[in-house]
Amino acid sequence: MNETSQEMTLRDSPPLRWSALERPIVALAPMDGFTDSAFRRVVRRLHPRVILFSEFTSADGLLRSAKVRARLDFEPEEHPYFVQLFGSDPETFAEATRAIEQLGVMGIDINMGCPSKKIVASQHGSGLMRDVAAACRIVERVAAVGRLQVSVKTRLGWSNTDNLVPFAQSLESAGASLITIHGRCYDQHFKGAADWAPIYRLKDALRVPLLGNGDVRDWEDGRAKQGHLDGFMIGRAAIGDPWVFSPDYRRNPPSWAEKARAMAEHVRLMCETRPERAAVFEFRKHLTEYVRGFDDAKSVRRELLAATDAATLLKGIEALAWQDRALPRAS
Length: 331
Known about the structure:
alpha/beta, TIM Barrel, about 325 residues
């Protein structure tokens, strides 16, 4: 990404403060393999106020690999944009923070919630919940080396919620300016229903803003779950349905034509950031979520998934935009 005067202004401007943001704070949750620049821009163009996060990115990989660094590329229109990092070494985080600060992002989010066995085995992600001192050293180093806001995304606990409040308070004392809690413990992974009750109790024990995450279907559902929290994140529900951030989503869901136009825009944006063939194949995981909810969705998906180049895929999407398909209303 070439630096423009707008990007230089953003880089040199005072850092955004979570505490100063209008409530509710509503964010697209960071999701590995999904929240790349193309998808973030689709969401941004529909919802100017939504906070955007990068994909889940290795702090060590950021320093060693140009391919990993490219995952963090963004356009000025994506702001407010935050980078989420995972790792376990405070000095690696410090070095990564210095590099990221030069990009002009708004802040760094530290992942302490990923339940992947491979990630946890290296004491990354959820593994940091078992070593409070290590988790706090990371937050302290990131907060000390730059001006960027530092936030943490974690879970209710390892297997229960007993340590949620002291763990979050320790992160706050270490320098976290916002905390997001996913309403499941590590050992649940993504099974069962998210439990927001412990998150509400935690809010009363913190001074910094607190967001809830887990099983939020849309803006209205998020507001219902929010309670006295400062906001919420929407993750998986937004894949293939970026309209879920709209307060009017349930009363005025997107038409099939609107969905088709967003799909075409999404494909074109993906083609800007990667080779065409790779873009077409990577778009498939989004396509299967966009194309659902009507009688012949399966056959339409099959037809579009057969495309191996952007022109064929876009032609199929644009042809479908003119067809009258009744989509179910959100509920």
